[in-house]
Amino acid sequence: MQLGMIGLGKMGNFMAQRLMKGGHDVIGFDPSDKARTALADAGGKAVDSLDKLVAALRPPRALWVMVPAGKVVDETIDALAGKLDQGDVVIDGGNSHYKDDQRHASQLGAKGVDYVDCGTSGGVWGLKEGYSMMVGGDEKVVERLRTLFEALAPGKAKGWGRVGPVGSGHFVKMVHNGIEYGLMQAYAEGFSIMQHKQEFKLDLEQVAEIWRHGSVVRSWLLDLTADALAKNPQMKDIAPYVVDSGEGRWTVDEAIDLDVPAPIITASLIERLRSRDVDSFSDKLLSAMRNEFGGHAMKTE
User: Fold this and answer.
1) Cross-strand pairs, 120
2) Which is the catalytic residue, given 173, 189, 197, 199?
């Protein structure tokens, strides 16, 4: 199958390579010369404009969008809307909000262009291990794209599936990332407790390796944690600042809208926000309050 790939960052290029290994013809576009060169070096064809990409694809066209969620996706869909024909399909494989998917599907549907949202997990390991894909869209359209998903997945019949109508793929991926926040926070807190227990002088890499085999808490995330500890046991030169992609926030927002308690995911999101407050006004005020009501000592800078 022939596919147009829009967005040739590291993950986009890795996905293109996996598709080509699966026998698919990939033509890519990215504004970056370096990104286009990377695809060409891997055996794909790269063009330097959306117009050239659309012209190079045989109808009915299939275009996979791998660009940052929000404004960039909106701009890409707006640009494609005037270039595609009835029967073409656009797949958003990034991290868009599911409500944006519904809006984009309506926008393209008015022109007879189909839309599929694909929540994609696997990151830089996907090229080797395959990607987990949560797909939202019309059943017939998804079936038409089956060979693409089979080539990208860990196996033809595992690691991917149509989970529902347009929007459902990114909704499930949003919750997936919210769960990921909670798991990461639990591992980080547990290892921090052990790191602070200086009496035992624990080797955290050893502990992680023990847990990786037979333990109830074993997981791929623990495997990656063990790798990180092996490379940098003391986490030297790493700032205690944790970025979030936005999907944890969306998960918490959705939980509130649905009246579903999600304290673990919410707390893990708040902890990420707290990591960025390097000069915490709230903590200073707490110290000042203790001094005011109880005369407790305050540490000064």
Assistant:
1) 133
2) 173
pLDDT grade for 298, boundaries at 50, 70 and 90: confident
Q: Is 26 exposed, middle or buried (0-12, 13-18, 19+ CB in 10 A)?
A: buried
Indicate the burial class of 146 (C-beta count within 10 angstroms; 0-12, 13-18, 19 or more): middle
Q: At which residue do the structure tokens 């926000």 appear?
A: 273
Phi, psi dihedrals of residue 248, rounded to the nearest 5°: -65, -40
- Measure Cα distances from 218 to 13, 124, 213 in Å: 30, 21, 7
Beta partners for 162?
Answer: 135
Catalytic member of 180, 189, 201, 205: 180
Contact, 229 vs 190, CB < 8 A? no
DSSP type of residue 61: P
Beta carbons within 10 angstroms of residue 86's beta carbon: 10
52 is catalytic: no
Q: State yes or no: is 201 an active-site residue.
A: no
The predicted-structure confidence for 219-277, as pLDDT tens digits, reads as follows: 999 999 999 999 999 999 999 999 998 999 999 999 999 999 999 999 999 999 999 99
